[in-house]
Amino acid sequence: MTDVLTPPPSRARRELGIALLRTMIRIRVLEEGIEKHFLAGEIPGFAHLSIGQEAVAAGTCANLRADDSIASTHRGHGHTLAKGTPMRAMVAELFARATGVCKGKGGSMHIADFSVGMLGANGVVAGGFGLVAGAALSAQQRKTDQVAVCFFGDGATNRGPFHENLNLCAVWNLPAIFVLENNKYASTTSTAETMKIADVAVRADGYGIPAVVVDGFDAFAVYDALGAAVARARSGGGPTFVECKTYRARGHFIGDPERYRQKAEVEDVMSASDPIVRLQATLGEALSPDDFERIWREARAEFDDAVAFARSSPSPEKSEAFFGAYAGDRDASDAVHRIEERERAAFLPFAPELGSGSHGGAH
Amino acid sequence: MTDVLTPPPSRARRELGIALLRTMIRIRVLEEGIEKHFLAGEIPGFAHLSIGQEAVAAGTCANLRADDSIASTHRGHGHTLAKGTPMRAMVAELFARATGVCKGKGGSMHIADFSVGMLGANGVVAGGFGLVAGAALSAQQRKTDQVAVCFFGDGATNRGPFHENLNLCAVWNLPAIFVLENNKYASTTSTAETMKIADVAVRADGYGIPAVVVDGFDAFAVYDALGAAVARARSGGGPTFVECKTYRARGHFIGDPERYRQKAEVEDVMSASDPIVRLQATLGEALSPDDFERIWREARAEFDDAVAFARSSPSPEKSEAFFGAYAGDRDASDAVHRIEERERAAFLPFAPELGSGSHGGAH
Amino acid sequence: MPTLSFSDATLEAMREEMRRDPTVFLMGEDIAKQGGIFGQFKGLPQEFGFDRVRDTPISEAALVGAGVGAALTGCRPVVDMHFADFITCAMDEVVNQAAKLRYMFGEQCVVPMTLRAPDGITKSAGSQHSQALESWFVHTPGLEVVVPADAEDAKGLLKAAIRSDNPTLYFEHKALFPQRGPVPDGDDFVVPIGKAKTMREGSDVAILTYGITVGRAMEAAALLEADGIDATVVNLRSVWPLDYDAIADAAARTHRVVVAHEAVRVGGVGAEIAAWIGEHCFDDLDAPVARLGAAHVPVPFAPVLQEAMYPKAPMIADAARRLARREL
Amino acid sequence: MPTLSFSDATLEAMREEMRRDPTVFLMGEDIAKQGGIFGQFKGLPQEFGFDRVRDTPISEAALVGAGVGAALTGCRPVVDMHFADFITCAMDEVVNQAAKLRYMFGEQCVVPMTLRAPDGITKSAGSQHSQALESWFVHTPGLEVVVPADAEDAKGLLKAAIRSDNPTLYFEHKALFPQRGPVPDGDDFVVPIGKAKTMREGSDVAILTYGITVGRAMEAAALLEADGIDATVVNLRSVWPLDYDAIADAAARTHRVVVAHEAVRVGGVGAEIAAWIGEHCFDDLDAPVARLGAAHVPVPFAPVLQEAMYPKAPMIADAARRLARREL
Lengths: 363, 363, 328, 328
Ligand SMILES: Cc1ncc(C[n+]2csc(CCOP(=O)(O)OP(=O)(O)O)c2C)c(N)n1
Ligand SMILES: Cc1ncc(C[n+]2csc(CCOP(=O)(O)OP(=O)(O)O)c2C)c(N)n1
Ligand SMILES: [Mg+2]
Ligand SMILES: [Mg+2]
Prior knowledge:
- The complex is a heterotetramer, with two copies of chain A (about 375 residues) and two copies of chain C (about 325 residues).
- With about 375 residues, chain A is α/β, with parallel strands linked by helices.
- Helix content of chain A is about 45%, strand content about 10%.
- Chain A is built from 14 helices and seven strands.
- Chain A has helices at about 1-5, 10-40, 55-60, 75-85, 85-95, 130-140, 160-170, 190-195, 200-205, 220-235, 265-275, 275-285, 290-310, 335-345, and strands at about 70, 150-155, 175-180, 185, 190, 210-215, 240-245.
- In chain A, helix 2 (about 10-40) packs across helix 3 and helix 2 packs across helix 4 (about 75-85).
- Chain A is globular.
- The termini of chain A are far apart.
- Chain C has about 325 residues and is α/β, with parallel strands linked by helices.
- Helix content of chain C is about 35%, strand content about 20%.
- Chain C has two domains: about 5-180, 3-Layer(aba) Sandwich (Rossmann fold), CATH 3.40.50; about 195-325, Rossmann fold.
- One magnesium ion binds near residues 153, 155 and 185 of chain B.
């Protein structure tokens, strides 16, 4: 009992480490699987992988409650999984199925799960800053102790909304945490080409926001930095900026010709810094090879199950295209419904390939 | 002769001081006159006065050539006059006359004079950053040694375009100079309410742009800081950030109830720091009371002449409303002309109070 | 019925909704200490505190972005855009975030945000402070767009906007703020979004309009009456959802329609309405639908130019007269 | 006539104009080292240097703002928006600066800037990467807006846009880049802004369209031919200035008009065209003008949903058929 009340740090740390490792391995397995199924033509649209960056998602979200919010980016699979979205709901969404977490309307670039406080990937770079400032403002207005975390890349810090929202959060002392995944590139441009500063963290000084720079390959380092930031925010201490130095091991998107860097650069970084290998090493004998293997096996089984689920799930009904833009558009007593119904009626008769205009409707 | 080739600094300095003082007094006289005629109902629209800030406009523009560009703000009378626009053209514009520098289409908030490199006041806060980044980029592309200067307020530094354009100018090493007139307020909000930093200049660090903070009431200090910045920019040294600590002695706009500050605050600042009084003191006996009075007399005469010119100038022809949006809209051989002509033809017949649709046309 | 200024009617709406729902809050530039550039927020911070009525930095993109984020997480923010022209500084947040999130995310969320946007031509404010931009947002699925014409609309539509679970743009004409009119009181008075109001019934011609142009159309109707022409005037109130039933009804009863607004005529809401009438009321029409709107130029500074480029009562009356006389 | 892909046709236009005028330069995200996400800039930095073909930070507001500033001071910048959807990130710069400065400043300046904006629905890019936004800019006085339909247009309209002294938006559909077609070569080949091209003459019905929908309309015309319906297809090429003469002519010759585009139907350019036809060709029309455009929803991700919500050949043919059979 006592050791439950006051567990020896080493043990708590070990359990934490294994939990972080499990999350990172699940992300890795998920994204390697996404890559495979994307190339096999089972996943439409764009997909951006975060392989190499898993420690940031895992170390950050391990500090969050389900009622805390995160805003993600176009590279959001890791954030989404780490915040708690089931693989089935994610894979089904990427496969564009009706059982996807967004009913197949969002896909990889616009995946969200409000049931776990995941306010969405965003197809617009820097689109998350406002959402997080707003979620933090909402917590302050509603007098809760929730916090909101914004994940973003180095490239996003060159957009205006980064500047405006960080300043706003500082001035209003909002419970917002800004987690920069500095992976050295924005698509084809390196940070050296797009900013004349070594650490983006210096920008936080311009808002009076405290900043730390951490090794983004070290899940414990990220976890500890976020632990402090989350504690500050929850207790009314205001925003924190955490720059995680990391690296994108895959192309910007699946299929990227990667003309802007050498293969060797990628291999060097990953052989030196793969965050999964790193954490396994840190844990040492605290984690047996068998246990390590089991985590991988379980993750692969979870993914295979998710793929089977997605494949056996139906595509959305065509008529679903015409619903969901407005609250009220399925409710016959609502003015929005009346006009959107009229819009469908104006559209569908000309679309014989969609059958009669009568399909769909409230359901 | 020799003293012309190598004038004793003291003398050059004196002449410079007198030139700066003349510019500041001309601005003061112009704006006190604008205030009077605005309240008398002779000036439509909005007008924002820079009384108290004259040293920034004078000290900056004294370093510029006619082929250098400036972008101004809603508070741009001083910048415009200091860059070389004649009072007649300015006052006629504010009086909405056809002889105004913008033919009466711009007014105080959108006054521009391309003949002296004045790219315009701007009704959009932070609208000037892009124009200056572009003018500096244009100089670099055309391989000239021109520079571009952006005037802006403390409030403008909370908008995204500030962030994006300063970073762009830094990354491309553009000949752009950013002159912040930190007058402690953005309309009704004090800098204390809208940013958590003492000097906005720290934001320049986030772009790797060298910054200086100067006493914006001291015309010589502004002149010297800009001298260095202009020299750097002309010689390919890239952008500089100059924060001028100053104060707005009048309301945000003419008619501002000024609920956000005490009258005493204004009186204290101006009695201690009026930049004209300051410079006169600095010059000491280098400037006789008579000469000082003559400068005021000449400025008043110049303004009275400008008002007489404006009053005797015609309003624009009504038909002028329909021309000028497009290059080519006065040229019968141009597709743009054809469609805009058609637009006028569709508009005017219904406007009997404007007479027939036939008026206007190319002229 | 009590008489209020348009500005005070919006104040009453804010007060009632803020009392009714503690998650309603307000942010914008110069609204709290000063009470808004048109006095439209006077007294609110005194009653609700400076936390629920916030002066902000000049950061439109952040204000709207944060409005969306707050709306996604349990609040009903009202964001004041200062001037409608500055919506352009937050266009991604309005169009790519607020309007699309509910749909993209499979209806997991609602975005109950209201944007207040003082707009329109008045007092030589010039090209960058005079626009009427509602047409862009009618073309942007996911948004509701309302345009009050008088004090009654001002209160009732603002309350409806705040209560709506959809992101709603509320375009309030700067020149209307001082205008007074009767306003039903009581918490329950709401003007339903998507329903037009017929201001005047007449059989010869119908003038379909909204916002400040409703008053100009009523003046025009009075001028027409003098010529023995009996005009219907419809105040659309909402431009999305549009009340197509009211539009069809007016076309069917008069066979001659003028559509008028202050926004630029080309590509304006009037184009949507005229095109729709042409499609759905083809056989009802005895004459073309006449569209009136601002000329295809920015708004000039000089009063003489400004007053020459948008439709007022004589212009509306002239168009209606020509339709009635089949001169079109 | 040589055959080129749409993408290579734009490359040829860039090359010719950059050779012809040293003040033409190009900036955008991922255009120089990578050659653009659609390969539409390949080889340009090798010929013209990385100063005239610039990779930029992700700073759309700055790129367009700087484009305006450079255009005001002696250059002819071409700014690539990456995706048309991101014009929203620079909306103030486009609408309140580029479009208005010449007018506000009394014609002291020109703004010869071109914005290239890859747009439209393809490959499940989703709600935030699939929009067609030209209608907003037709409603914004001061701008020119062109929409190429094929490789010939791609080259000729881009050259015209770069040469224009007005700020010009060039909307290029992402799905067109690989499509091949004949392209007149030679520096002098320019497609005049403001003139439409009749792709096909037919007496039964006219399909007025632009951009990628031109190809869909040509397919529809082939389907109609099988039913013995002879269709005119007009490629508008420019949506501002609009070639109203060509529009009036088509209406006068066929008495039945379909207007089609991929952009949202409500408030789209089709509304302006249909409304204008209703006003100016009232007596020519034997049937209502049928407007086709995307449904009033964001663009969904799932292919089955995406393909269900915008007009393609069968839908256009069906509308034309109903008009021809007077079923509308
Ligand atoms: C406003 C905007 N501009 C451009 C793009 C195209 N784009 C998508 S991701 C990306 C690079 C983002 O870089 P960074 O923020 O560092 O994130 P990373 O991809 O490295 O995770 C770009 C340019 C976009 N989606 N949104
Ligand atoms: C984008 C935008 N937002 C708001 C306004 C309204 N406005 C005009 S001036 C001003 C204050 C500007 O403050 P600052 O930049 O410090 O300049 P100052 O007035 O002090 O010279 C505001 C909020 C505007 N014109 N443009
Ligand atoms: Mg990156
Ligand atoms: Mg200020």
